[in-house]
Each structure stands twice: as structure tokens, then as C-alpha cells.
Write a structure and sequence with these properties.
With about 70 residues, the protein is an alpha+beta fold. The protein has two helices and two strands; from the N terminus they run E-H-E-H. A two-stranded antiparallel ribbon has the order 1-2. The longest helix has 17 residues. The protein is elongated, with a radius of gyration of 16 Å.
Length: about 70
């Protein structure tokens, strides 16, 4: 199975909360409109992507995770 893999930094809850508050304001502007398929990620999924590694198989994910642990 292929998985979307990326290296990311989790954001502090305070940052996620602030981003979510601003996103709610923006949503009001587009309420009832289909703005080119725009959608907002749930605040629990917010992060800062460092590098997108594409779609990887399970074996590659294990190797990537091991390398990331060693690096961190």
C-alpha cells in the first residue's frame, strides 16, 4: 500500500488554535460558495511541512522512519 509521506514539524496547540480562529473568519466569507474546491484542514492536522517525500510503500516508510529517528 502506498502512503503519502512527509517530514513535518508539529505546531504548538496555541498556534493551531489561532490558525483555526482565523480560518473560521475566512470560511464566513465563502459561506455557501464553491470557491474552487477550497477546503480547510481540521486543526488537529495542522503542521509545518519541511519536505514532501511522495507516495511510498510500507518498506520505504519503515526505512524513512528509522532514518528520521536517527537524525532527530
Amino acid at each position: 500500500m502506498k502512503r503519502r509521506v512527509f517530514v513535518a514539524i508539529n505546531l504548538p496547540e496555541t498556534a493551531k488554535k489561532k490558525i483555526n480562529e482565523e480560518a473560521e473568519k475566512i470560511k464566513l466569507v465563502f459561506e455557501g460558495q464553491n470557491f474552487f474546491g477550497c477546503r480547510f484542514a481540521p486543526s488537529k492536522n495542522l503542521h509545518l511541512t519541511i519536505s514532501f517525500l511522495g507516495y511510498q510503500d510500507d518498506n520505504s516508510v519503515a526505512l524513512i522512519a528509522d532514518a528520521a529517528k536517527k537524525t532527530a
